[in-house]
Design a protein that fits this description.
The structure is a single chain. The protein has a two-stranded antiparallel ribbon with strand order 1-2. It has a single domain (about 15-215), classed as Hypothetical protein af1432 (Orthogonal Bundle), CATH 1.10.3210. It is an all-alpha fold and about 220 residues long. It has helices at about 15-25, 30-35, 50-60, 65-75, 80, 90-95, 100-110, 120-130, 135-150, 160-170, 175-180, 180-215, and strands at about 115, 120.
């Protein structure tokens, strides 16, 4: 199955092609903006800044070198996590470079909307992107979720793990194969692995509890 095509996407067959494409992209100003996320911690440890770079790296790993997509990936959580902080404004992003307006629009497309001071439900947010979002938004959300699923292996809050896995199965996997078959397969494998680890962890706890009761 063929996946969705990005605007002006061209076939990249080799590492040289990837290198040449990346050499044309100036990422430093966006990475600098993303550093506002260093102080934002994640459930799995580390911080949101690293997650932005992980998401970009996943896109590159899948040979996606669209400049707007990669620049947005580096700041995709900026307005959700750092709204109101110095430098986190529409004008700041729009004026970074020629891609700024498109980058800003993409970041806002993958940012939870607020209505009357309340954020849209996560289910509506994911459906909005998966069903009616732009190709770039869909690709970015898949890479974002792959990064989240990788990190999920280091989370010990069982209910949080269950919620993320259920959310992925219900709202992302049904659409993912059409968007990018390879990313879909990785996501499927990660979900299955995390579900298996959750079962094993609970079995180990049950066995330990039983051993303590009989000791």
């Amino acid at each position: 199955m063929m996946g969705l095509a990005l605007p002006q996407e061209r076939l990249i067959d080799s590492m040289d092609d990837i290198g040449q494409a990346l050499a044309q992209i100036t990422m430093a100003p966006y990475i600098s903006k993303a550093m506002a996320l260093i102080g934002k911690s994640r459930k799995a440890g580390s911080n949101m800044f690293r997650h932005q770079l992980d998401t970009m790296a996943i896109l590159i790993d899948y040979k996606l070198t669209d400049p707007v997509l990669l620049k947005a990936a580096v700041i995709h959580d900026l307005f959700e996590e750092c709204r109101g902080m110095p430098g986190v404004t529409r004008d700041e992003i729009v004026n970074v470079d020629a891609d700024g307006p498109a980058v800003y629009d993409l970041v806002m497309e993958v940012t939870l909307k607020e209505r009357d001071g309340k954020r849209e439900p996560k289910s509506e947010f994911l459906r909005r992107i998966m069903e009616t979002g732009t190709t770039r938004a869909k690709m970015l959300k898949l890479a974002d979720r792959i990064s989240n699923l990788i990190s999920l292996g280091f989370v010990h809050d069982d209910q949080f793990v269950r919620d993320v896995l259920a959310e992925t199965r219900q709202f992302i996997l049904p659409y993912a194969e059409r968007i990018n078959p390879n990313m879909y397969r990785e996501m499927q494998d990660l979900v299955a692995d995390r579900e298996n680890k959750l079962i094993l962890r609970n079995c180990s706890r049950a066995a330990l509890d039983a051993a303590e009761k009989t000791a």
